[in-house]
Amino acid sequence: SLIQKRTGAPRPNAQFTTTQWSVVLHAGDSLNPESESALAELCRNYWYPLYAYVRHRGHAAEDARDLTQAFFHRLLERKLLKRVKREGGKFRSYLLTALKHFLSDEWDRARAQKRGGGQSLISLDYESGQKRYAAEPVETRSPDQLYERRWALAILDKAMVQLRQDYQKMDKEALFETIQEFLPRGRSTPYSEIAEKLSMTESNVKVAVHRLRNRYRKRLREEVSQTLAEGEDAEAEIRHLFAALTGE
After folding, report:
1. How far apart are the first and last CA of the chain?
2. Of 34, 149, 150, 160, whose CB count within 10 A is highest?
3. What is the DSSP letter of 28?
């Protein structure tokens, strides 16, 4: 993780880690390079839900691309960070509120400045984003509800990428590829079939799946925590994200 360090004096029975979003909040609108890097990485990781939100608001692909880039340009220039309150809040909630303000208040200015003047402070793969958006099924939910769902998917995908890298480092990528289906949103092949495929005992497959799920939960909690201010409940946020996925 880009920002993952101990801060302050330790308290009994607790460890406090500065999250990426907390680094941004604490810096306010200063020119702290650490805060800038943390914010840029968060935007790079979670740009797609914003792009898709702009598309779902009725903007064409090219306009959505330009508006999203202009939004990030203004955000990283600190002009929009002045709206952030020091008491914190969730990064996903802040982003959506800031984007709504930008779309309503800054549309004319963004057009007059050619939507950021062609400046690109973050390299984003809009081509793949457009393909992804085009492949999504027609939805009847509101743009806000879809934003929550896409944010949840982005968090899950980021945790999965980290998990895959963990298994690559352990030289167990083949094992990961075979048993990842036991994670949420996947199917479940009988343990006996997996054991035969991997030349393992069924009990060893069960142990491997158990460890996989534990590692996944750890990675998911880490990714969620990076988008929360210090002291916010990551488990409650995870429950919210899974509810957004199921539409509950």
Report:
1. 31
2. 150
3. T
Q: Which one has a higher pLDDT value, 104 or 205?
A: 205
Provide the Cα torsion 219, 223, 226, 229; round to 10°: -90
This prediction has a pTM of 0.76
Please, are residues 48 and 132 in contact by the beta-carbon 8 Å criterion?
yes
- pLDDT band at 27, cuts 50/70/90? low
Strand blocks (E) in 70-116: none
CB 76 within 8 A of CB 48: no
C-alpha span between 223 and 225 (Å, rounded): 5
Whole-number Å distance between alpha carbons of 199 and 145 = 44
Q: Is 83 exposed, middle or buried (0-12, 13-18, 19+ CB in 10 A)?
A: exposed
What is the torsional sign of CA 59, 64, 67, 68?
positive
Strand stretches in the chain, DSSP E: 5-6, 17-18
> Kindly report the CA angle at 112 between 106 and 115, in degrees rounded to 5?
65
Q: Which ranges of 170-228 would DSSP assign to H, the alpha helix?
A: 173-179, 191-198, 202-225
Mean pLDDT of 151-158: 94
Rounded CA gap, 238 and 172, in Å? 27
| d(C-alpha 156, C-alpha 163), whole Å | 10
